[in-house]
Amino acid sequence: MSDLTVVAQPYAKAAFDFAKETDALDEWQQMLSIAEMILTQPNTILILNEMDDDSSEQPLLEMMLQVGGEFMSQYFQNFLKVMAENHRLKAMSEVLSQFRDYVAELQQTMNVTVCTAEPLDDEQALQLTQALTQRFGKTITLEQQLDPSLVGGVVIKAGQTVFDGSVISNIGRLSTNLHV
Fold it and tell me: Which residue windows are coiled coil (predicted)?
């Protein structure tokens, strides 16, 4: 687990708990996305990388509030202030990711990425979605990615689980077994 993952956990949990309690999950997810978008701009990344652990994040916070403040509630601005006071703005992307995970868990949904060499047709996508829904017991949102290097087969990424049924991987496993 990376340092940012550990640092982000209490902030993501606090944001989620507050948003859930105030029935504002969508709004908080949007505000977190805006903050993350600001912090991932090339100029902002340069500023973040130049900061050491003792540098004040106040100028960065002020810039964030100036750019996105009109889209951020007072509660969210206070949340950002606490993160800045504790030198945690670098963890915003991870806070957003964990917040989304909490929301998905609450709503019993799961985003699944399917990598194939050729696009799935509607019937294949439907069958795969139904099989994954049955496997995980959650509503599945399928995202398709094309990767011609797979040659054939499929790679499915569902949370921390990866199913690799690609031709390239199968050939690699066969090659390894033949050399043993």
Answer: none
The model carries a pTM of 0.71
7 & 61 share domain: yes
Extended beta strands in 18-131, E state: 109-116
Pairing, β 109-116 against β 139-146: parallel
pLDDT tens digits along 21-62: 999 999 999 999 999 999 998 888 887 777 766 667 888 888
Task: Report how far apart, in Å, the C-alpha atoms of 46 and of each of 39, 43, 49, 50, 66 are.
Answer: 10, 5, 5, 6, 18
Helix, strand, or coil (residue 54): coil
Could you tell me if 27 and 77 lie in one domain?
yes
User: Looking at 78, 106, 134, which one is the last position of a domain?
Assistant: 106
Sheet holding 139-146, edge to edge: 139-146, 109-116, 154-158, 161-164
How many angstroms separate the Cα of 35 from the Cα of each of 48, 64, 118, 147?
Answer: 14, 7, 36, 31
